[in-house]
Design brief:
By secondary structure, the protein is an alpha/beta fold. Helix content is 38%, strand content 17%. Strand 3 (112-119), helix 4 and strand 4 form a beta-alpha-beta unit.
Length: 306
């Protein structure tokens, strides 16, 4: 079925002419929110694996991890190409020499056609930007940049350690170097009204992002969010609410923004709530159905400057 939004899979086929899948890797890095630079607690939602729950095994070499994760995909996609995805923790939070080494090692693996690096907006000093600019000249590159919300009260609640202005500054520095940027957003954060979530989408819609990842808030075991949820028992979105909200967001975003993901999912055994986040394909099919029922499409309500 043809999607009513611009999928990452469609974009890959336009660029590479074939199926490309992401192989998640753990570079053994940390985060300023964990090592004491800003905090030791981490973001409230982040797992002990630094949101890299499906990445290769920490401590293994890049090649070993790549082979490990790639092996899981071969039965379904035996002839695919690969994007090496530095997913765990902050993928630019290391010495320039080490980062260049691991990025180049990943690019050297069989079938790899590019890189995707997930990081924080406050982990992009000029010397790291120089490395990314060099890589962008020789390969296909995405920087996945966490913003989560544009609202200061929410960023403080989740212990992000930076504000929305920090995200915008990093975004513009990356775009000055012609590097693609995918923004990460969490929908369903406690204490945010639907209008506030849509305002986050509208704010990003008017910025020069090339992609976006929408994550449904889910509570994982052994996270600070789990501790808070078990104490406060705050309300979470229902599946129906989430489906409608994602459709609203898609209508707001420009049609040329690539949709990398429409919901977040964690290891099923670690999910405390909501239960429906275990039903990934049911949710995605629900979003497709909602867009069809509305006879809508990505960008239908996009208005620049709002």
């Amino acid at each position: 079925m043809e999607k009513r939004y611009y999928t990452l899979n469609q974009h890959f086929r336009e660029v590479f002419g074939e199926k490309v899948i992401k192989v998640s890797l753990d570079a053994g890095l940390s985060c300023p929110n964990r090592d004491g630079t800003l905090s030791t607690g981490g973001c409230i939602f982040c797992s002990e694996k630094g949101s890299g729950d499906f990445a290769g095994q920490r401590g293994f070499s890049i090649k070993e991890q790549f082979d490990q994760v790639r092996a899981r995909t071969l039965k379904k996609w035996p002839n695919a190409k690969y994007l090496a995805y530095f997913q765990s923790f902050s993928g630019t939070y290391g010495s320039p020499s080490y980062l260049r080494e691991i990025y180049e090692e990943a690019l050297g693996q069989e079938g790899v056609v590019g890189l995707s690096i997930s990081t924080r907006p406050d982990c992009l000093p000029d010397e790291i930007l120089d490395i990314l600019e060099d890589l962008n000249k020789i390969t296909y590159l995405w920087i996945e940049l966490g913003v989560q919300s544009v609202h200061s009260k929410t960023l403080e609640w989740m212990n992000r350690g930076h504000d929305f202005d920090c995200f915008k500054e990093a975004l513009f520095k990356l775009r000055e170097r012609n590097i693609r940027v995918c923004a990460h957003v969490i929908l369903g954060l406690p204490h945010e009204k639907i209008e506030e979530m849509l305002f986050t989408a509208k704010s990003l819609a008017d910025l020069p992002i090339q992609g976006i990842k929408l994550h449904s808030l889910h509570v994982l075991k052994e996270t600070r969010l789990a501790d808070s949820y078990l104490k406060e028992d705050f309300s979470l979105l229902t599946m129906e609410q989430y489906i409608e909200l994602v459709a609203d967001v898609l209508e707001i975003l420009p049609g040329n923004v690539i949709i990398h993901r429409l919901m977040g999912d964690g290891p099923a055994a670690d999910v405390i709530a909501p239960e429906w986040t275990r039903k990934k394909w049911e949710v995605l099919n629900g979003i497709d159905g909602e867009m069809m029922e509305r006879d809508s499409f990505q960008g239908k309500k996009f208005v620049s400057g709002v």
